[in-house]
Amino acid sequence: MMIAGILTGCSDSSTKSITVCKGSFDYGDIENTYEAKGDKVIRIVNVTINDYRDTDYDDETLVSTLESQLNVYKEIDGLEIKLTAKDQIVRQEFIIDIENGDLKKLNEVGLIDLNGDGTVSFEKLTKNAKENKLTCKEK
Predict the structure, then answer these.
(1) Bridge-partner residues for 96, per DSSP?
(2) Quick one: pLDDT at residue 10?
(3) HSE-up of 56 (CA within 13 Å, CB side)?
């Protein structure tokens, strides 16, 4: 019975977990959703909401300007970027499919941090999120 108790306390690498880390800052709001199997992250969804109402830019100009800045990320397998603006509030969403993406390129552009074994650590990501003043909760 003691062995069963120890085993049930271990993280099962086949069970999927979802954790959401959120925070509000002067420049806007951030929400990161991490899907993981054990300590291995399989998908990240990063959403940032930025308020540009103190600028003279209209929604169309904001989106086109940000799209040109995000060109460095175009054509990377495993990355989808969604960008919308309404009333000078911009919503930027990065969806990173770690299981099927080009991990080398995603790592090179700084969107993920690969471990030596070629995986992205859930523990490392959530620790970093908390150090950056985000609040994390498992779904």
Answers:
(1) 44, 79
(2) 40
(3) 0
